[in-house]
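Can't attach files on this board, so I'm pasting raw text. These are the components:
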Amino acid sequence: MPNLERYKQRYGLVAIDGAMALIVILLIVQIWLLSATLETFLAGHTGAVLPATIFSGLVFLGCLVLDLFVTRVDQQSRKP
Amino acid sequence: MPLLRSPSKEPLWKDELSVFTSDERYVTRRQFTKFLTLASLGMFAGNLWILAKAYFVKAPSFPSAAVCEVGEIPVRGAKLFAYPTPRDHCILIRTGEEEYVAYSQKCTHLSCAVYLSAKEDRLECPCHKGFFSVRDGSVLQGPPPRSLPQITLERDGTRLLAVSVKGS
Amino acid sequence: MHGYEFYVDPSRCIGCQSCVKACEECETHRGTSLINFDFIDRGGTTASAAYVCWHCEEPTCAMACPTDAIKKGDDGIVQSSLKPRCIGCSNCVLACPFGIPKIFPEYEQMMKCDMCYDRTSIGKRPMCATVCPSQALSYVRPEEIRGRREKPTNVFQFGNQKIVTRVHMMVPAETDSVSMDVLDYMWEESYAAFAQP
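---
Top answer:
Structure tokens for the assembled complex are below.
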């Protein structure tokens, strides 16, 4: 059914666009986190570095999960 | 990369260079998403590097240097000196009869030289009106983000020695 | 597209070559005809056949193109080569089972029928189908073609490759798919003779 394929493709693209937007937001958070960590470290407060790094790692895992989601949606909506 | 891509009957090159125009939109989005994830990994790696520096790199220690004689400067007076290298300008302030404090003269905002304002009893930066406390070098007002690095002083007989830098 | 399909019936072709002249008038390639017009056996018969690009589901020309210059759109039309990408290598010419793409050495480009995309995309007929007097090339709704004795098919067998196309060919009613293997058209007696050890 050609219509079902078009429908899947269109909603697949919407899902991918949404995931991409989320990744961009996470990336902005991570950029700020990196700059704040660097500033805190340069000021001499080394206590905040470890929690910041752990949180950065979690944000990266979030981005990775979204990337895997995008790959999955991409494969599913283009299945012949 | 079989780890991140579930097995499909199409080889990767056929997928990425598909002859169907409808697939091109997917390929560009997929590539952009992968690039963003890589950027995220880069940020995380940066954070890890800072962590490594914080825990594994010891702050360098410098030999102590004589600053001045005890009683050389009056109470609520200041003297400029250089520690640890001749390019690191510092300021010594006598806050009481037997109390001395010393800070790096570089303002933490944009490195202008701070001076002691005896009238206001604070260290002032002339560039953007940043004010620091004489007690501990913390920021009272203005754009500086951090407190002034403090120079640890030691009394050696009648001399005052600068032994280390804290918080720079 | 827009409910119309393209039907090719070589048995109706009278060799007038109106399609060849009309194709030249298409805006996108003015002056160059992209119809594949053949005389079947020039010395022996007046039979002729005109063909357009068959717009296969999985276009072999596109698969063979080393520069990804041939694209198939969402509407199923295989476009002619993209000008910035085509290098004139003739891979598509060799790959196409029907022999449709043409190389123009003076431009170092391949050009082929794109079903008059500037016309069919807005609901008009391709130039060749508009002018063909015997409607050997016709662009009509499927209901109209049912009136003919022949039936349309769009499945071709090319050796091991099964090709499904967008353009239909009119074949005798009992034929399901058209084979392009020479052996399938040889008389049984003559190739049984070759098969003797």
